[in-house]
Amino acid sequence: MTDEPKMPATVAAFLDSPAVRTAVEALLAMEAGALPPGLEWDELDTYYLARGGAELTRHDMAHFLRLLWRTIWGRRLGPH
Amino acid sequence: MGDRGARIRAVSDHFGLANSHHCLHVEPLEWLRLNETQATKGLKHFLASDDERIGCFLRALAPSIVWPMDLEDLSVAAEVRSGRGRIDLLMHGRARNRMWGAVVEAKFEHGLGNNPLSAYRRHAVNLRMTVATDGSAERTGALIVVGKRRCRQTRRKLSRNEHWRFVHWHEVLRRFDAALTELKVDEDFRRFRRTLWERAGEP
Description:
The structure holds 2 protein chains of 2 kinds.
Chain A: H1 9-16, H2 18-29, H3 44-73
Helix pairs in contact in A: 1-2, 2-3
Chain B: H1 4-15, H2 36-47, H3 51-61, E1 72-82, E2 85-95, E3 98-106, H4 117-126, E4 141-147, H5 152-159, E5 164-168, H6 169-179, H7 187-200
Parallel strand pairs in B: 3-4, 4-5
Antiparallel strand pairs in B: 1-2, 2-3
Helix pairs in contact in B: 2-7, 3-6
């Protein structure tokens, strides 16, 4: 029996809260290197922290899904 | 990569999700796809019911202006005739013997081609707003195109119209929703803003 993968707090918040999900999706919709038009200079700090959180959520989601796949199917369906 | 709880809280903090009034806490109306006129008339309807809302919206549109907290005689109007066109949303009020406010051109997909921005600017000046470059302490009026994307045509038009600034709908709504404080949540207004958010995020 393999241990259950632990869901990261980022993924839990993304799945639990529609507000967080919408905010993360809005941040990830912005092209890399671009800033939302109308963002103020003094909002850059919190914006980049938020964008970092959104990118980490994307990473954690992919990593967590891969762990889930491995836990559920093991090597029976080939290496993934 | 640090504390995940803190990293996701940074998202919540930037959007002001701790505010119970925030529109992202509800779902959009799936059956309503707003057009530009519906968006501005809807905003006018909901903002007109409370001076605090107008002040909050002005600050969300142009945070770099030092808006006075004691604005009086506040008004908001939609579809105001000006020159050969109509101003989508016009807000103004008085404080310290000066006129403060904003002229807003609202866009979703349509370009700025037929909008006489210079006439709209004169309208603001005739109302005795001081329009100036960002950061000027004298500035009492904001000229804002609120839209989804700054396409080439929009950039070209704005480059010929000094003092106008493009702001994404989401930036305005994010700041407004983070700052809105009222005794009771206005569910109709909140649902309207959430539907507007969804409309502005369409690819």
